[in-house]
Every structure is written in C-alpha cells, then in structure tokens.
Amino acid sequence: MALGSILKQPLLWFSLIGALLFLADSRLLDERTEIIITPSLRDRLTNLWTTQTGLSASEAEIDSLVENWVKEEVLYQEALRLGLDQEDTIVRRHLVQKLSFIAESEPLPTPEASELEAFYQENIRDYTLPIRYSFQQLYFQSQESADNALGQINEGTAAKGFGESSMLNPTYAYRTALDLNATFGTGFADQLASLSIENWDGPVQSGFGYHLIFINTIHPEEKTPLSVIRQQVTQDFQRSRQITVRDTYIENLLNEYTITVESQ
User: Fold this and answer.
1) Which CATH number does the domain 131-220 belong to among 3.40.50.300, 2.60.40.10, 3.10.50.40, 1.10.3720.10?
2) Cα–Cα distance for residue pair 203/189, rounded to 1 Å
3) Is the per-residue pLDDT at 119 higher than 50?
C-alpha cells in the first residue's frame, strides 16, 4: 500500500493520537507521583511549629509534621488531577485573596513628615472627634409620669426625688450620637440636639420609655492632634499606599487581557 494511502487511513491517525495522549498522560503521572521533601521544607514546617506552639520540635515531631504534609500534598495533587479546583468559588476567592496579599506585600519606605501631614489633613474627618454629650437622666415608663415630674422640678422640687429604677446609668459623659443611639435606641441622640443646657428638659422618648434630661455640657467637634495619633496615622497611610499598589497591579493586569462580553 502506498504511503499516501496509509496516511489517509482514519484508524492510523486515531491510534497515533491515542498513543500521544497516553504518553503525555504517563509523563504527567510520573510528575505527579514524585513528591520531594527538601531540607528547606523541613525547616519551614519546623519554624511554623515553633511559631504556633512556642516550643522547639523534636525529631519525632518533625517526622510527624513531614508525614502529615506528605498526606496533604498527595490529596492536593490528586484534587488538582481531578479538576476539583475548577469552578470552585471558595478556591477562587482564596486564590484571589492570596494574590491580593502578594500584590500588597511590597515593602514600603517610612513616610516623610510632609507626606504624613498631607495625608492627615486630607483625611482630617477620620481624626476628628464628633459632638459628644455629658448629661444626667431620669427614667419613666410613661410620658405622663415624666411630664408630671418635670412640672414639679420646674416649680422647685429637687430632681433627685424623681425617676423610676432601671438598668440605665443616671449619668453619661462624653457620649457620641452613635453611642447614645446604640444604648437608648435609634433617634435618641437627635432629640438631645433641641434640649436646653444646664436645665431639666424633655421628656425624651427612647426604646425603654421616657426620660428627663439635664445636659451638663455639649462637647464640640475636636480634631485630634497629629502628634498624639502619629502611629495610627502612619498605619493608615501605609495601608492606603498598599491599596494603591494593589489597585495599580490589577490595572496593569487588566491591560494584558481582552474583556469580551457575549450577548444573551
């Protein structure tokens, strides 16, 4: 039979392709079945043990660590062979998170004083204490009881004789609107803004009932000096730069890909 006729036989090509696939799979299988335990691996496992336990690992413990690692590696390689990493949301998120950490892990130089000052000023709202209230309160279950008590206090009766027992404190100091709403219920702090200062006023409704309020002081917004929170601002600045580095890394990656949106 002529060579040209032989090459046209489908069975021949099927056999050749099958043989090539078998050979490729055999080589990949050989690669998968070899697990190399290097001295650096033993050192890494030993250091991890010491970091987690604070103790030095014995030879028996190191052998056990290596044995457990080998078992995990076998399961890991087999999972990859079976394609269990494909279309898995948890694996996908873990890999994305890990690469993001790598992108952010580049060592950053210590910021200059001028850079820190500029960052502080640009984000001054994050370092400004909001309005805070220092006040006393009397608790009542009903509005009627609170109104009656307020009337008698305004006529000269001492306030300390009024109020019903509760789990609430009689006084609160330097409390922000967020703190107050968390303690008394949403909207409580907004009602304080309309009350008089250094005078019993109300009643103010909360999630518990009604309150007469004596505001001692309304503390205005206060900028925390950079000298007091320099360490915190430095950490925030470095974190901001890490995010910038990560975002730049992602933008550069996007430029290397073609994004195609298929129609429905």
Assistant:
1) 3.10.50.40
2) 13
3) yes
